[in-house]
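Structure tokens please, single chain.
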Amino acid sequence: MDLTDFRQKKVLVVDDFANVRKSIKAMLQDLGIPSVHEAGEGNSATKMIQESQYDLILCDYNLGKGRDGTRLLEEWRKRKLIGHETIFVLITAETSRDVVVSAVEFKPDDYLAKPFTMEVLSTRISRWFERRFALAPLLASVEKKQWHAVVESASSIIENYPRFRSVAQKHLIEGLMEQDQLDEAENYLQGLLERRSQSWAQAELCRIDIVKKDFVKAEKGLKAVLIADPNLLVAYDYLATALEAQNKNEELQRCLEDAVARAPQNIQRQRFLVDISVENTDYHRSNIAMKEIVTMASDTMHQSLVDYQHYVKGLQNEASNTEEEPRLREIKKEIVSANKKMTERYHDNPNSRLFSKALLIQRDSNPTSNSHTKTLNGLFKSTFDLIDEITIETGLFIIETFYLVERFDDGDEMVRRFKLKCKNDPESIKRLNEMQAEPVSLENRVQAKELNSKGIELYKEKQYAESIQFFDRAMSLSPRHPGVILNLVQSHLLQMKKIGINQLNIDLCVKYIKRLNYLPEDHYQFDRYKKLEISLKSMK
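Here you go.
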């Protein structure tokens, strides 16, 4: 295309170095594009695109402090500040694999390596606008999620613009799959692969297998794709889906680790790695990913107080699961550091302040000491005074703190108030119930669950004396869990039915059953609890 066609185009150059901006601006003006604007960092660039629409944005990857170029692109698209009409090109001198692969995953329209000449810029600009002109109807339909129109536009581009066939083919498959036209998509992909091998097409075939719930076939195919093309990030995501569906959690974790090693900037994938590592009780790996999230999210749309809180909780879980002194010292320092950053960044937020107070108590080697009475009383009052502003994450941490110092009535009262606040939020209600039942560390919950399962096996074999030993050990780790307590009491009752009533055991069971006074009537264990309570009263 002739550059004279671009005289009315508007360009924004974003770079933290003024001399670089001036140099690129001069090149563009020499090429006949007079309307060139500059921004030195993310906030000013965001303000400019809020006030005016640009045809082309040339944005440096590394913008110093704050958001980098990929985060700006991500945020602007999410907030719909730029659409398909704007061409976004990422400029960088970075050549490392993880930077390049990560940058490509954010899907800029192109990637321009520094340094570049005016001749290179001239050629690329012509190509960018020619591509945008050809793809405009297709991209507009994708933006509006008009999938029938996407398929029609993609088919037209494949026929009339061979240079852009590859892009159109990918959107064609997307359009077909969004309309559940799986057979059509599969036939088209098979036709492409008959002509030549293409990793993306093979991965999309595996995606169709996933939709059809043939997870074994998808897993096998995707592993083959990744051997051939280990930088095809979408294949890792598809493989993760297939592995998760088969409950192959250890393989799933390795898959995600491989993906984030190649492209660490994807926060959503890092969050998935956090969750699956916790399920695998690999708390150290989970915390590595969580630290990455906190670091990468800083000054971006992903920045969140809750992430700091999750990171602190994750470190606490790891500390309770390791005996390595060097690592324990590192964890203690990291908890202090994370808490400090959170309170500095969110100093006006009551969630930050109250979470930090609760953490101070939990970190004490003797949290039940009288020295914390005044602090706890203040924390209790502040939580109720500010309950409308307190998030469920902060609330759960504070409740856990009161249970930890054995102020169970205060903890139960907080649960009651937060349940009223969250009455229309079933997930939060569930989490509050779980906290009330098991206000203990994750490691204790895992061990208690294993012991409880062994006790149930013995109970089913009518080996009540042996089952009591396992239930008792489980209760020592999780002293308020309804299932464990009721299993223990029921085993005692059946054991006494075999060998005779023992008043000491009855008194012990009454003491245990009283721990469940907090159970609401809609709790799934409530009826069982009341029946056992009545049985004990009749025996006593």
